[in-house]
Amino acid sequence: MEESEDNSSEEISQLEQLKNQAENTEVFIAVVAGVGNTFPKFKDFIEVNEIVGIDIFRLAQYDFCVDVLVVGIDDYRAYLVSNNSTKNVRLTINWKADDGSRSGKSEVGMLSKSIRHILDNRDDSLDNLIIQSIACREF
Question: 67: closest CA among 116, 128, 28?
């Protein structure tokens, strides 16, 4: 936007800030829902969550090359990973349902300092997941 008779430079700055917040909120929703291929910066994701206020838990019992986070909205659980390093990595993730009924392996890429969706419990058989291992390979 350019300054005009109708909008001051301060108003334009505020509108650009609101536009940026709206875009970051859209990306936040896409990551939590597992829709599309968005790789927001972790700090932008956390800033949006400060406004939205969704429960996010770090699975501290794991010692992986990335942080595993669980986002909870009512009964919905999304499993996210956060790459806090300065390196782009390829993840190999082995998981299973806590009752042993299903298991799987996922391979995904991650940009440095970003967060992404890896799994969720939309499928009722994946209600409680156990992340067995995550291997990171730099690319």
Answer: 116
